[in-house]
Design brief:
The complex is a heterodimer. By secondary structure, chain A is α/β, with parallel strands linked by helices. Among the domains of chain A are: 206-389, Dimethylsulfoxide Reductase, domain 2; 593-673, no CATH class; 688-836, Barwin-like endoglucanases (Beta Barrel), CATH 2.40.40.20. Chain A is 29% helix and 16% strand. In chain A, the strands form 8 sheets. Chain A has a 7-stranded mixed beta sheet, covered by helices on one side. A 6-stranded mixed β-barrel of chain A has the order 27-31-28-30-29-32. Chain A is globular. By secondary structure, chain B is mostly helical. Chain B has one domain (6-217): Orthogonal Bundle (TorD-like), CATH 1.10.3480. Helix content of chain B is 71%, strand content 1%. In chain B, helix 8 runs antiparallel to helix 9 (157-189) and helix 9 runs antiparallel to helix 10. The longest helix of chain B is centred in the last third of the chain and has 33 residues, at 157-189. Chain B starts with 5 loop residues before the first helix and ends with a helix. The chains are: A alpha/beta, B mainly alpha. Chains A and B meet through helix 1 and strand 1 of A and helix 1, helix 2, helix 3, helix 7 and strand 1 of B. Strand 1 (31-32) of chain A pairs antiparallel with strand 1 (122-123) of chain B.
Chain lengths: 837, 218
C-alpha cells in the first residue's frame, strides 16, 4: 500500500463532502450544542462514574468572593472550582477557594448552640436548644430596647457583604435601633479608602490590566493576595505574558508579585510616598502631565483656578521633593526614580497600583493621596488601562420595616476623641480599648460575627484581658462555625454554618468595568443544628415584635432577584439558581463617568443650591444645617448633584462619606480644616525617625495559600503553609549573629515573641518580616494542634498530618495604633529588637 | 504555526471534518438508499482504493435493492448481534491498565462522556445509544475539526491551538487507543467488502490524522 499524503486526505475529504452533502443519508446527530474551548464545570464520580450534581454559587473565603461551581455527590460536597460563565473569575478559583470544603467539613465545627458553664474562657460548655438560646438573647436585647438603650447592644462583624449586610445591618439592626455597629476595615486597608474618599469619592480602585501598557506597583501583592485576587491576578499575568506589559514593583520584600515582576525595586518601609512624590515632581517638571485631566483636578483653594494656575501651584508644592531627597529617605536610587517617572508618564495608558505596603503605615492615607496624584496628573484615572473607580452590581432589595427608630450609638467606634481626623470606616482596633476606658460607655451585649477580635487586632494579650473581664463586657455572644480564640471567650456561641451552606446575593467589583450579579446558594443543608445567622435575625425580629418582611435569607435573595432590573428579565431567582451569574451582555464598560454633564433640570430641583466656595451644586435638604456651607454642613455630601467647572456642570468625582467637592481633590480643604497639609505630602513615621542602634522594623505580609486569620483550620491549606519563620537579610543577621534555624526573640514596646530565623536576600536589611495567618492557639487540630471542646474525635485526615509546626502570630507584639487621618492600624511600622533566644 | 498557509489549513480542517462526518454516518446506522447511491459513485470508489479500501465487483454490480438489504443485514450482524458481533463501543476494546474494560458502560464510557460534555456539547435527548459508540466519537471529532476550521477562518490562533489540543487529546486518550483492534476485528468478521474496506480506511485515516494533529501542533 502506498504512503498516505495530505493530497490523499484532501481527496478523501472532497469525496466525503460530496456524500455528506446528499440529502436523506442520515437519521440525526448524537451530539448537540456548541463547543466551548475551555474545559470544565462538569464532574463525575471516579468510583461510580455517575455525574455529580453541579451547583453554581460564590466563594467567601476572602473578600474577592469569586463565583464558583460546586459538585455534590450523595449529598456531600466533593469539589469546588471556578465558574466558567463569570466575567470576573473566568472559570478560575484559588487554593483557598478550593479548600472551602475543609471549612464545611471541619471536624471542629460547632454544631449546636453552646452556653458557657465554667468561668469565661475556661473552656467548659453546655449545649442548649436554639429556643433557649434565642429566648435568652431576646430577653436581653428587648430589655435594652424597651429601656431606650438599644445602643448598648454592640454588633461587631469582620466580614459582611452583599445581602448579608443588608439583612443584618440595614433591616435588622436599624429596625432594632442600634448604630453601635463595628467592622474590621481599619485592620485591613482603611487608609486606602479614606485616601480615595478625600480625592475621588467612593472607594475601591479597579486596575484595568486588560488594557494597560505599564504597571507601577507600590507594595501590592496582587499576584498572591488581593481583595479582588483571582479576577485581577490572571489579568496581570495575561498582560505580562501575552502583551509584554512591564510591571515594576516596589516592596521591602521579594514577594511572589515582586519576583514575577519585570523588576523588583527594594524600598525602605513606609517611604513609598516619598518616591511617588518625587516621580510627580519629575513628571510635572518635564511637562509630561495630562493637561486635559487638570480641568477636573483641584490643586488650589480656588475652585475656579485655571489649569495654568493649578499646574503652577502643584509645581511649587512639589519643588522640594526631588529624586535625590527621596533617595535619602527610601534608598531607591534617584536615577531609578527619574527613569521610572518618565516611563510611567510617557506610556499611555499606564496603571499605578498599591495596597498594604503603602496602606498599613502611619502615613497610609497620605501615601494613597500621593499615588492618586501620580495617576491623576498623568491622566490615568477612570480610563481604559488606568486606575478606575470600581464598578459592582446594584441590586434592588427589600429594606425591612418602613418605620425605623432613630438609631443610637455608643461613641466607641471611631477611636479616642481627636486621634483620627476622618474615621470614615471606623477604628475597630480601638473598640476594646475604648470599652476598657469606659468614658464613652460600654455595651451590655457584645456580639461578634465572622470576626476574631482577639486574634486579628494587634496586641492580642490586651484583647484577651478585656474580653475576659466580665466587669468590662458583661455579656458576649459569638456567632461562628468554629471554635477560635475569640469564641473561647464568649458567654454564648450561636453555631453559624459555613458559607457553603447559606444564601446571599453578591456584588464585588468587576475587573472589566461591567457589573456582574451573582448569588451564593447552599450546596448542602446546614450541618447539625447550625443556622444561618441571617435566618436567625429574621427569627429574633419576629420574637421582638418587628418582623422584617421576609422569613429567611433565601426569601430575601429571591425577592431581590425578582426586583433587580436585568436579573429579573433574565429569569429572576430560578435563572440565578441555575446559572449563578448574570451580566448584561450589551453593557459597555464604565469609563470617564466624571466627564458626563448634569442635566439642567437636576439643578433646578427643589432644595438644590450652589455653593460658591466649592463650586458644588447640592441638595441642601440632605443636611440639617445647610447654612454652614457645603464643606461644613453635616452630611452635605449626600446631597451632591454636580461640580461647576467653567460654565458647565459635571457629574465629576461624586463624594462619599465626606464633604469633598466634585473635583479630583489634590488640594483638600477637609484636611486643612483638621490642621493637616492640604496637598499630598510625605509624613515620616515618628517611630522610624528615632530608631536606636540595633532597632529593626517589623513588617507583615500574606501568602497565597492562606487568608488572613480564618483559614488555618483548612488542612489542605495548612499542609502547604504551616510555619512562618521571621525573614531577615544576611547583613542584618550577621550583625546579630543569627543563622537560619536559630531561635530568636522579637521584642517590641508591647511584648515579645519567640520564633525561628530565616536568613534570606529576599528582604531588605534593617527589617524583620513575619507573615500573618498562623500561630493560632485555638481553631482546631490543624490550626493549633488542639481540638476544640466541641470537636469530633480523630478524623481520617489527621493520620495524614505530617507537620508539627503551627507558626507564630506577629500580632502579639504589634500595638493597636491608628494612622492619624483614617485610623488604619499600622501593621508595618512596629519598631523591634531581635536577639538570639 | 507562523509559517502555515492559513487558506490551506482552513481547507484541511474542513476536509478532515467531512471525513469524520461521513465515517460517523456510516458507523452509526445501516446505509440509506441515497447514501448508497453516492458511495457507489466512481469518485468515492477511487479514493477508497487509494486509502486501501478495495471493493469487490459485487459491490458495484449488485442491484440496489438487494445490496441495500444485504448491507442492512451485515450491519446488524457485525455491530448489533444477536450472537457474536463486534461491539462498536470503546469500553469493550480500549485495553486499560486498571483492567476496567471488556464491558459495556465501562470506565471509558464515563470518560468519553465527561470529555465530550466538558467541551460544552451535550448528548441529544433523542439519542438512545451509549456515549462511547464509535459513531459518537467520530461525530465529536467532526464537530471539533469544524470548530477548528472556524478558528482558522477567524485567524484565532489561540482557538486553533486549543482545538488541536483537544483533538489530539481525544485521539490519544480515546479513539486512537481502540480503533485499530476494533477495525481489525471488523475486517476479520466482515462478509461484505464494503464494511471490510470501511474498517481499513478508518484505521488508516485515524492513524494519519493523529500524525496531522501532532504536526500541526508543533
Amino acid at each position: 500500500m502506498q504512503k498516505i499524503t495530505r493530497r490523499d486526505l484532501i481527496k478523501l475529504g472532497v469525496a466525503s463532502g460530496v456524500v455528506l452533502a446528499t440529502g436523506g443519508i442520515f437519521k440525526g446527530n448524537a451530539l448537540a450544542g456548541s463547543i466551548k474551548l475551555a474545559a470544565g464545570n462538569k464532574d463525575f464520580s471516579p468510583k461510580t462514574g455517575v455525574e455529580r450534581k453541579m451547583i453554581p454559587s460564590a466563594c467567601w473565603s476572602c473578600v474577592t468572593r469569586d463565583s464558583m461551581i460546586g459538585f455534590v455527590e450523595d449529598g456531600r460536597l466533593v469539589k469546588l472550582e471556578g465558574q466558567l460563565d463569570s466575567i470576573r473569575g473566568l472559570g478560575k478559583l484559588c487554593s483557598k477557594g478550593a479548600a472551602g470544603i475543609n471549612q464545611l467539613y471541619d471536624p471542629g465545627r460547632i454544631l449546636y448552640p453552646m452556653k458557657r458553664a465554667g468561668k469565661r474562657g475556661e473552656g467548659k460548655w453546655k449545649r442548649i436548644s436554639w429556643d433557649d438560646a434565642l429566648t435568652e438573647l431576646t430577653g436581653r436585647l428587648k430589655k435594652l430596647r424597651d429601656e431606650g438603650h438599644p445602643e448598648k447592644f454592640m454588633f461587631h462583624y469582620g466580614r459582611m457583604k452583599g445581602s448579608s449586610s443588608k439583612i443584618v445591618k440595614s433591616a435588622f439592626l436599624s429596625t432594632y435601633g442600634t448604630k453601635t455597629i463595628g467592622n474590621h476595615t481599619s485592620i485591613c486597608e482603611v487608609s486606602k479608602w479614606t485616601g480615595q474618599e478625600l480625592t475621588w469619592g467612593k472607594h475601591y480602585d479597579n486596575w484595568d490590566f486588560d488594557n494597560t501598557k505599564f504597571v507601577l506597583n507600590f507594595g501590592s501583592g496582587c499576584l498572591e493576595s488581593h481583595t479582588n485576587s483571582i479576577p485581577l491576578l490572571q489579568r496581570l499575568v495575561a498582560a505580562m505574558v501575552e502583551r509584554n506589559v512591564k510591571c515594576v514593583t516596589f516592596d521591602v520584600r521579594l514577594s511572589n508579585t515582586a519576583a514575577r515582576s519585570t523588576e523588583w525595586v527594594p524600598i525602605r518601609p513606609g517611604t513609598d510616598g516619598a518616591v511617588a512624590l518625587a516621580m510627580c515632581k519629575e513628571i510635572m517638571d518635564a511637562g509630561l502631565y495630562d493637561k486635559e485631566f487638570f480641568k477636573f483636578i483641584k490643586a488650589t483653594p480656588n475652585p475656579n483656578a485655571s489649569t495654568d494656575e493649578k499646574v503652577a501651584a502643584l509645581k511649587k508644592h512639589l519643588a522640594p521633593y526631588t529624586p535625590e531627597w527621596a533617595e535619602k529617605i527610601s534608598n531607591v536610587p534617584a536615577a531609578k526614580i527619574k527613569s521610572l517617572a518618565l516611563e510611567f508618564a510617557k506610556t499611555k495608558p499606564a496603571c499605578v497600583i498599591n495596597y498594604r505596603g503603602t496602606a498599613a503605615h502611619y502615613n497610609g492615607t497620605e501615601n494613597e493621596r500621593v499615588i492618586q496624584m501620580l495617576a491623576a496628573i498623568t491622566g490615568n484615572i477612570d480610563n481604559p488601562g488606568g486606575r478606575c473607580r470600581g464598578v459592582g452590581a446594584k441590586w434592588k432589595y427589600p429594606k425591612g420595616p418602613k418605620k425605623k427608630p432613630k438609631g443610637k450609638k455608643l461613641k466607641i467606634l471611631d477611636g479616642f476623641p481627636g486621634t483620627v481626623a476622618y474615621p470614615t470606616h471606623h477604628v475597630s482596633h480601638q473598640v476594646l480599648k475604648m470599652i476598657k476606658d469606659g468614658k464613652a460607655g460600654r455595651p451590655e451585649v457584645y456580639m461578634w460575627y465572622c470576626y476574631t477580635p482577639v486574634y486579628a487586632n494587634g496586641d492580642c494579650q490586651e484583647n484577651i484581658d478585656i474580653m475576659k473581664d466580665e466587669s468590662l463586657i458583661p455579656y458576649s455572644v459569638c456567632v461562628n462555625a468554629y471554635y477560635d480564640e475569640s469564641a473561647a471567650l464568649a458567654d454564648m456561641i450561636l453555631p453559624n454554618p459555613s458559607y457553603l451552606e447559606w444564601w446571599d446575593w453578591e456584588d464585588m467589583v468587576s475587573p472589566t468595568q461591567v457589573p456582574e450579579y451573582y448569588i451564593r446558594q447552599p450546596f448542602v443543608k446546614p450541618l447539625g443544628e447550625s443556622r444561618d445567622f441571617k435566618d436567625v435575625v429574621c427569627d429574633l425580629a419576629e420574637r421582638m415584635g418587628f418582623p422584617l418582611g421576609f422569613k429567611s435569607a433565601e426569601e430575601f435573595v429571591r425577592m431581590s432577584c425578582e426586583k433587580t432590573p436585568g436579573v429579573k428579565e433574565a429569569g429572576g431567582f430560578e435563572y440565578m439558581k441555575k446559572q449563578g451569574v448574570w451580566h448584561d451582555p450589551k453593557a459597555k464598560p464604565k469609563y470617564f463617568e466624571y466627564k458626563k454633564e448634569v442635566k439642567g433640570e437636576d439643578l433646578k430641583k427643589e432644595g438644590v443650591i450652589f455653593d460658591e466656595a466649592t463650586g458644588v451644586y447640592w441638595n441642601s435638604k440632605k443636611s440639617k444645617k445647610p447654612d454652614a456651607g457645603y464643606t461644613k454642613a453635616k452630611n452635605a455630601y449626600k446631597g451632591y448633584v454636580g461640580q461647576k467647572i467653567g460654565d458647565k456642570v459635571y457629574k465629576g468625582f461624586k463624594p462619599d462619606k465626606v464633604n469633598k467637592s466634585g473635583y479630583f481633590e489634590l488640594y483638600s480643604e477637609l484636611l486643612k480644616i483638621k490642621g493637616k497639609q492640604p496637598l499630598p505630602n510625605f509624613v515620616p513615621i515618628p517611630e522610624h525617625e528615632k530608631m536606636g542602634a540595633g532597632d529593626l522594623i517589623l513588617t507583615t505580609y500574606k501568602v497565597p495559600v492562606q487568608i488572613h486569620s480564618r483559614s488555618a483550620n483548612c488542612k489542605w491549606l495548612t499542609e502547604m503553609y504551616h510555619d512562618n519563620p521571621a525573614k531577615i537579610n544576611p547583613k542584618t543577621a550577621k550583625g546579630l549573629g543569627i543563622k537560619t534555624g536559630d531561635k530568636i526573640k522579637v521584642k517590641s514596646k508591647v511584648r515579645e515573641i519567640t520564633t525561628t530565623a530565616e536568613v534570606t536576600e529576599g528582604i531588605i536589611p534593617g527589617i524583620v518580616a513575619i507573615s500573618h495567618h498562623l500561630g493560632h492557639w485555638e481553631y482546631g487540630r490543624y490550626a493549633s494542634g488542639k481540638k476544640s471542646p466541641m470537636a469530633t474525635d480523630n478524623d481520617s485526615g489527621l493520620k495524614e498530618k505530617w507537620w508539627k509546626t503551627y507558626g507564630v502570630h506577629p500580632n502579639w507584639i504589634i500595638p493597636n495604633s491608628p494612622d492619624p487621618i483614617s485610623g488604619q492600624n499600622r501593621y508595618m511600622d512596629t519598631v523591634c529588637k531581635v536577639t538570639k533566644a | 504555526m507562523a509559517h502555515i498557509d492559513r487558506t490551506e489549513m482552513i481547507a484541511v480542517a474542513r476536509h478532515r471534518s467531512d471525513i469524520y462526518g461521513l465515517l460517523a454516518v456510516l458507523y452509526r446506522q445501516e446505509p440509506t438508499r441515497d447514501l448508497l447511491k453516492r458511495v457507489r459513485g466512481p469518485q468515492f470508489l477511487e479514493v477508497m482504493s487509494q486509502w486501501g479500501g478495495e471493493l469487490d465487483d459485487d459491490f458495484m454490480t449488485r442491484p440496489e435493492d438487494a445490496l441495500l438489504e444485504e448491507m442492512a443485514v451485515e450491519y446488524t450482524r457485525l455491530f448489533l448481534g444477536p450472537g457474536k458481533h463486534v461491539s462498536p463501543h470503546e469500553s469493550v476494546h480500549h485495553e486499560r491498565e486498571d483492567g476496567q474494560w471488556g464491558q459495556l458502560w465501562g470506565a471509558s464510557t464515563v470518560e468519553v462522556r465527561k470529555f465530550i460534555e466538558g467541551t460544552g456539547l451535550r448528548y441529544e435527548t433523542k439519542y438512545r445509544g451509549l456515549p462511547d459508540h464509535i459513531g459518537v466519537e467520530l461525530e465529536f471529532l467532526e464537530a471539533l475539526t469544524r470548530r477548528e476550521e472556524e478558528a482558522w477562518e477567524q485567524d484565532d490562533e489561540e482557538g486553533v491551538r486549543r482545538c488541536l489540543d483537544v483533538e489530539r487529546r481525544f485521539l490519544d486518550e480515546h479513539l486512537f487507543r481502540w480503533v485499530a483492534p476494533f477495525c481489525d476485528k471488523v475486517i476479520a468478521a466482515a462478509e461484505l467488502s464494503f464494511y471490510r474496506s470501511l474498517a481499513s480506511v478508518t484505521k488508516r485515516f485515524i492513524e494519519f490524522d493523529r500524525q496531522e494533529c501532532l504536526r500541526a501542533e508543533s
